Amino acid sequence: MISRSLLQFCLMLLFSSEISCLDCNRLHVLQTRMNSDSLERLEKMGGNFPFQCLNERTAFKPRDILKIRLSQQENAKVAIKQILKELFHIFNNNLTQAAWDGTSIKEFQNGLHQQIEKLETCLSAEMEKEITYPGNETILLTSLKLKRYFQTVDDFLKEKQYSQCAWEIIRAEISRCFPILDILTKRLENEGTIYLFFLEKTQIILYE
Ligand SMILES: *[C@@H]1O[C@H](CO)[C@@H](O)[C@H](O)[C@H]1NC(C)=O
Ligand SMILES: *[C@@H]1O[C@H](CO)[C@@H](O)[C@H](O)[C@H]1NC(C)=O
Questions:
Q1: Tens-place pLDDT, residues 34-72
Q2: How far apart are CA 31 and CA 155, in angstroms?
Q3: Which residues line ligand 2 (CB under 6 A)?
Q4: Which ligand is nearest to the CA of 163?
């Protein structure tokens, strides 16, 4: 009875959206593809870096996101979710002067949104458990560093009043976040295995 309704639920998911029950076990594959799609859209959205903005480029001095050290025990899901949400937030600022193709902007925003949703759908229960895990300094410290990094991006845009050059500088900067996302996504692959192993163990205990 239970397994039959579960099967129906899976079929419903399969037909109602792109998410199937199997996808959650292969979340890293989906996320890797979506990372590269988003980067492609970001690059396609505008043309080459405008010549007239070269001077302003040095005005932006962020902490280098590539230098944020992500330790091995890092909870990759928490970091990926945070980066995606920050990106979504940034590209929801005033884009009037950005002189980018409107359709590409929408595609980029929708892509990020879907990526966040899929991550949350597959992992919500698991993530709640980890976030409430008390005093995990590694996760908190990374989260704080990421927050500071994206704050400098936000502040820069605000200070430059969302000018075309400011947006071009940020577009170039943001493309550097994707290698980080790829590294974290790779860790998801290993975590998935551990999680499944954990589930099997729990079942054995329950049936004993
Ligand atoms: C966005 O910026 C433009 C000027 O660049 C301004 O005219 C418009 O009102 C702003 N829109 C919002 C929603 O703030
Ligand atoms: C934080 O979590 C990681 C695994 O996610 C664990 O290895 C580490 O010991 C935890 N740190 C603390 C201070 O609890």
A1: 999 999 999 988 888 889 998 888 888 776 666 666 666
A2: 29
A3: 73, 75, 135-138
A4: 1
